[in-house]
Amino acid sequence: MISTLHKMGLRSNVMYSAAVASIGMSIVSWIISNRYEAAGIERADRWALFVGEWAPTFFATGIALRMEEMAEEKGRETPEWQEQSSDIRRPTRAGV
Fold it and tell me: The dihedral of CA 23, 24, 27, 28: what is its sign?
């Protein structure tokens, strides 16, 4: 599923942003519900918790997408040991 999301163009920074936005929306929904609804603080708490519970899912998906991005980057790069091997000269024996 994560590789499919990655292939569709979804990146980890988008999911991290969604998680932070979810936390902000949780606070805003609590304030709005507490001020403008006559249902009381219990209902405001439920709204805030409902929206705030999305954040861990967004963070976890962001981490999984970041791992996918790192795996893709490693696949494209030349390994470090291959880059350095052409610059290293083999020592010669003295007197030969």
Answer: negative
